[in-house]
Amino acid sequence: MSAERGYHHGDLRAALIQASFELLAEGGLQRFSVAAVARRLGVSSAAPYRHFPDRAHLLGAVSAAAARDLRAAIAAAAAAAGTDPAERLAAAAGAYVRYVAGTGAGVQVIYAAELYDLPDEARREQTRALMTTLIDLATATGSRSYQEAVRLVEATIAVAHGYTSLLADGFFARKAHSSDAVADRATAAARALIAPPRR
After folding, report:
1. Which residues are within 8 A (CB) of 4 and not within 5 positions of it... i.e. 6 or more apart?
2. Could you read off the pLDDT of 1-60 as tens digits, one per residue?
3. Model confidence over 76-128: pLDDT tens digits?
4. Rounded to the nearest 10 degrees, what angle do helices 179-194 and 146-168 cross at?
5. Which one-letter DSSP state was computed for residue 197?
6. From CA 137, how far away is CA 81, in angstroms rounded?
């Protein structure tokens, strides 16, 4: 029996999304394609199009799943960090590094420019929920306005994404620099940014 016949209609859609995450983790967004996902699953090149009309729709489904799962990871990390607002937001940076190191699906996937005009309300709902969680964490640190909270979120994610990029690019070459160790560095850097030490 072929791999394609082994999937039922509902299962193939989920398998396509999972295989997309695997490819993103291995090769990033530049090497992501519907054909590569089909090859990964051992299905015909036409099979994915029964569930997704094109690359953008498949990537949109991946984006929605990534936003949902990253939001859950950030919420869990913030809860584990305790009650200090700065620690809770800093924990989001570490959660981001850990999530993206495992999935390849960071902001470049979740907020991919090619998805801006995609009419996908489910995706928009998940990306809005992710941003709301981050803004709430930033606001709790004492941000005086919505705009200030947004800038603090941008800075926190920039730190986290920077560490993730350095990890992916091999900057941390020694075995001691695991994704967990790099996540801890990102958390410390975000902590210094959010609540710099007083002189």
Report:
1. 12, 41, 42, 43, 44, 47
2. 344 444 544 588 999 999 999 998 888 888 889 999 999 998 998 989 989 999 999 999
3. 999 999 999 999 999 999 999 999 998 988 998 999 888 988 888 999 999 99
4. 150
5. P
6. 12
Q: How big is the CA angle at 63 (ends 15 and 83), to the nearest 5 degrees?
A: 115
The SS3 assignment for 75 reads helix
Question: Do residues 87 and 81 lie in contact, with contact meaning Cβ atoms separated by under 8 Å?
Answer: yes
Nearest by Cα to 90 from 18, 196, 3, 17: 196
Taking every pair of Cα atoms in the chain, the longest distance, rounded to a whole number of angstroms, is: 69
Neighbour tally for 54: CB within 10 Å: 12
Give the integer Cα–Cα distance in Å for 66 and 95. 13
Tokens of 70: 């990253």
The domains located in the chain, with CATH, are: 1-52 (1.10.10.60), 60-194 (1.10.357.10)
The span from the CA of 42 to the CA of 6, in Å, is 10
Q: Per the structure block, which two tokens stand in for 165?
A: 């990029």
Could you tell me the CA-to-CA distances from 173 to 117, 177, 179 in Å, in that order?
39, 7, 11
Please tell me the distance from the alpha carbon of residue 131 to that of residue 151, in angstroms, as a whole number.
12
What's the residue count for the chain?
199
